[in-house]
């Protein structure tokens, strides 16, 4: 089969597209014929050796896929050949086939197109976990989302609105603000034209926001620390801007807010039952039209480098996917 291989921790351009051995379903696994694979910002960090984990080389990147089951391994009784599924694979998603432990595979209804489904796990599941388990977002609260037109930012806008929050979407252009508005944002801020801190203070009449979904880092993070409401929760999602900020903890002390880390991958390992309940809720919301994966662009597997570069350039409005 064809796959994308990372042979050394190096720039994304060093990834290769080549023939590799076809995997088979081992005990407790299913083999998935991949229809689409989601492309995520951490994928670029992983292949450069800049992520929290460093896989053994060589490896196939890719953490989320959709497709159909073509083989069922020993001990698997709840999944059958031909089922439409989404799967969290940790590695191996940038390929025509991938073997995945059955506990990380979930059937999906026909109402959800497989190309969209491939982007549901990482972005939407991260936002869902962040707002539900980490922020305990309540109906009527104010949610500020940075990077709100990106994959996980757009998911946070949709989910926050579904949970009853007033959503303020922060984007870098009017075009991106329009996309966020179309996906449920009540208010949008183009931070390239408006001062984020002063605008939020004016919008909230000085109260500040209850929850911030922060995935940019750098100056954006620092501005968010200045607009937190009392008992607010500042969610640390990631650093798409490239700058990991240093936080003056005295701000949390005097303003009475919490800084809460969100690492969805660890959540799935530590709280697998909560993860599966979250996914069932997400799928239900999807079929009800409350959330949706917005596919910005689909690339062929051979063009995975271009796909990753588009994600890291922060030009994406929604999700980028690969079509093996």
TrEMBL record:
InterPro entries for the chain: ADH-like_C, ADH-like_N, ER, GroES-like_sf, NAD(P)-bd_dom_sf, Quin_OxRdtase/zeta-crystal_CS, Zn-ADH-like_protein
Gene3D superfamilies assigned to the protein according to its UniProt record, in alphabetical order: Medium-chain alcohol dehydrogenases, catalytic domain, NAD(P)-binding Rossmann-like Domain
Keyword Oxidoreductase: yes
One MF term in the entry's GO annotations: zinc ion binding
Keyword terms of this UniProt record: Oxidoreductase
Segments forming domain Enoyl reductase (ER): 10-322
PROSITE patterns: QOR_ZETA_CRYSTAL
Enzyme Commission numbers on file: 1.6.5.5
Classification via PANTHER family: QUINONE OXIDOREDUCTASE-LIKE PROTEIN 2, SHORT-CHAIN DEHYDROGENASE/REDUCTASE
Protein name (database record): NADPH2:quinone reductase
């Amino acid at each position: 089969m064809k796959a994308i291989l990372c042979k050394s921790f190096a720039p994304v351009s060093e990834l290769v597209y080549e023939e590799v051995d076809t995997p088979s379903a081992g005990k407790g696994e299913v083999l998935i014929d991949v229809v689409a694979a989601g492309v995520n910002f951490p994928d670029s960090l992983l292949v450069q050796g800049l992520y929290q984990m460093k896989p053994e080389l060589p490896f196939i990147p890719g953490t989320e896929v959709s497709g159909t089951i073509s083989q069922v391994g020993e001990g698997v009784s709840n999944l059958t050949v031909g089922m439409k599924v989404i799967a969290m694979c940790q590695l191996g998603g940038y390929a025509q086939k991938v073997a995945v432990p059955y506990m990380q595979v979930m059937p999906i209804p026909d109402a959800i197109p497989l190309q969209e489904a491939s982007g549901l796990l990482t972005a939407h599941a991260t936002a869902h976990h962040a707002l539900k388990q980490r922020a305990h977002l309540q109906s009527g609260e104010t949610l500020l989302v940075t990077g709100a037109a990106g994959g996980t930012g757009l998911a946070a806008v949709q989910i926050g609105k579904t949970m009853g929050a007033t959503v303020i979407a922060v984007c870098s252009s009017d075009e991106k603000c329009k996309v966020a508005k179309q996906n449920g944002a009540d208010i949008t801020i183009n931070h390239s034209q408006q001062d984020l801190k002063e605008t939020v203070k004016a919008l909230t009449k000085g109260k500040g926001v209850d929850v911030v979904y922060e995935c940019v880092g750098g100056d954006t993070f620092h501005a968010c620390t200045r607009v937190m409401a009392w008992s607010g929760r500042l969610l640390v999602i990631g650093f798409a801007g490239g700058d990991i900020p240093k936080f003056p903890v005295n701000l949390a002390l005097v303003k009475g807010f919490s800084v809460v880390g969100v690492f969805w991958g660890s959540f799935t390992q530590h709280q697998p039952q909560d993860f599966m309940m979250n996914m069932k809720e997400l799928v239900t919301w999807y079929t009800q039209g409350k959330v949706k994966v917005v596919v910005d662009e689909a690339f062929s597997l051979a063009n995975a480098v271009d796909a990753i570069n588009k994600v890291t350039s922060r030009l994406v409005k929604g999700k980028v996917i690969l079509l093996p």
